[in-house]
Specification:
Length: 150
C-alpha cells in the first residue's frame, strides 16, 4: 500500500511539473499589461519610429507575447511583433472567425481609456486559431496592445 501511495505521489508531482511547464510557455495577463507599459515607456523616451521598429524587429517578444500598434482610428497597422507583413495594412474591416470586427473593438477600447478585448486569433507558436484576450491602451495618436492566448 505504501508503494502505491509513493508511486501516486511521484505521478502527481510529475503532472504538476508538466502543468507548470506548459503554463510557463504562455504569457500571463499581468505580463501582457507590463509589456504594454514597456512599449509606452519607449514611445515616450525614444519616439514613435524607434518604438515601432523595435516592435517589428521582435525586440519586445516573450514566448507567445508580442506587441502590436495601430493608428488610433484602427485604419493602419504601424508595428507588429509577430507578423511584419501586417505593417502598413488597413485592417479596420478585419473579422475574427466569429465575425467580430476586432481592430474596431480594440480601437474603441483604447479610445475609452484602455482595457481587455476577447477574440480569436492565430497563435504564432502553435499556428492554430485560439481564444485570445488583448490589453490595449492609447499612446498618442496610436493604440498599443499585447494579448494572451487562453
Amino acid at each position: 500500500m505504501l508503494r502505491i501511495f509513493a508511486l501516486l505521489t511521484v505521478l502527481l508531482a510529475g503532472a504538476a511539473v508538466s502543468d507548470a511547464a506548459v503554463a510557463a510557455e504562455h504569457g500571463t495577463r499581468d505580463q501582457a499589461v507590463a509589456m504594454v507599459k514597456r512599449v509606452e515607456t519607449m514611445f515616450q523616451k525614444d519616439g514613435a519610429d524607434a518604438t515601432f521598429k523595435a516592435i517589428t524587429a521582435r525586440t519586445f517578444n516573450d514566448r507567445d507575447l508580442y506587441p502590436f500598434v495601430y493608428t488610433l482610428d484602427g485604419t493602419d497597422c504601424v508595428a507588429h511583433g509577430a507578423n511584419s507583413a501586417m505593417v502598413g495594412k488597413n485592417l479596420i474591416g478585419l473579422k475574427d472567425q466569429d465575425g467580430k470586427f476586432l481592430i474596431r473593438e480594440l480601437s474603441e477600447t483604447a479610445k475609452k481609456g484602455g482595457g481587455w478585448v476577447d477574440y480569436k486569433w492565430p497563435n504564432p507558436i502553435t499556428k492554430l486559431i485560439e481564444a485570445k484576450s488583448s490589453y490595449v491602451e492609447r499612446i498618442g495618436d496610436f493604440f498599443v496592445g499585447v494579448g494572451v492566448y487562453r
